[in-house]
Amino acid sequence: MDSLRALALPVDAPQEQETEVAPLPRGDEEAFQEIYELYRERIWALVVYSIGDSLQAQDILQAIFLKVFRGLRSFKRQSSFFTWIYRIALNECRNHQRRRRARHVPLEAIIGSRDEIDPKAIPNHREIREVLLQNAVRQLTYKMQDVVVLKYLQGLSYEEMSRVLGCSPGTVASRLNRALGELEERLRPFRRFL
Amino acid sequence: MRCWRFKMKRKFVPYLEGSLSPGGAKRLEKHMLDCESCRAMLARLRAGHAFAQQLPHLGLEAARRGPEFEAMMHDLGEMATPRRAWIRVWENWLYASATPRVVQGLLALVLALLALVVVSNRRILFGERQSIAALSNALDLSGFHSLSILDLSTNTRPHIATEGYVRDVRVDEEEGTLHFKLVEIPHGSGPFVVCEIMNPTGMSLPREGSRVRVYGVARYDGQPGREWHEVNPVLNIAVLKQ
Fold first, then answer.
1. Which of A100, B163, B241, B242 pairs with B61 at a CA distance of 20 to 30 A?
2. A and B: number of Cβ contacts within 8 A
3. Domains in chain A, ordered, with CATH?
4. Banded pLDDT at B13 (limits 50, 70, 90)
């Protein structure tokens, strides 16, 4: 189990420690459970922002962990464990989105057009704010979604994001700039709710 | 006017977070004084950054379907280990098959399969004796061309019947066959035909020196050192004189 802990270090663990891992205890049910416990919340955040629908997201979360568990034996340690598991999660989300092309729902369709918005008429302000933010993120391109979620919900550094996404830290920074610019543009009309 | 300081722009978010080095922050601020485009962009990013910081952390707990989802996730560990999954399937099958109706059905299926195996392999299970006996009964022995051992050299018929004395009976253990010579004269040299019984257990075997009538297929063995006529296989033997 110690070897598993070493393998499945949290994302903020130093990289040097992750390379010093003992062989994975194969077929260890407890080990699977531990990986699941360690990563489910992080992966969940990634999936639910990509997919939107929480029921579908749960199915995808399950598929991701199934792939992770099945792939453990073939995990070559060419990357760190968290990079590997995040890539699986991102790929699964992309595959799902390709299969079911996400329908574009403009923010106005959720809350009404700019002229129609009456803050007093909205009973649950917090809920609306969350929906607005989530939908604004979901309307970004996949690449932009990834950097926003990895940065603001997972707390990854540019270096870590670049390893997960397979691009340079400079590209990550550029994508993040574009993503934040778009978020600002999309959410500007609803600033009063945010 | 558009600014081409791309590397500088990549530092906007670290600057907003306060994670940029003091020197880097100073350089960026100095650039801002002269670059209207970057000032506008930073203002947009500041707002975007503020929005992104408000993104709700959607916990799995809130969205969970209930205990069945957790159980499903727990099962993933078992699904990921083929042996355990196999055992699980086996256990489920055993549990399901414990009902009397299923047991009866399975028993009937096993019996049917057993009967099928017995019927299709009766020759192997009960030996050739029955089949040979049945074959000899089925054979129309009158249809075999009768001829003497001497006449075999001119024979062209496949099925023959010939008579003689049994000599040099021997068993080929390797092949599981029995051979003997059928001769015209009981003692001494003379014309002969070699007879081969494919399955000695399925036929009454001739005694050495007895006179028999052999029914079978006529052949000629032309191998060097042999070059003799054969009755191979012997299909029936009628003992004429013990």
1. A100
2. 118
3. 1-102 (1.10.1740.10), 106-194 (1.10.10.10)
4. very high
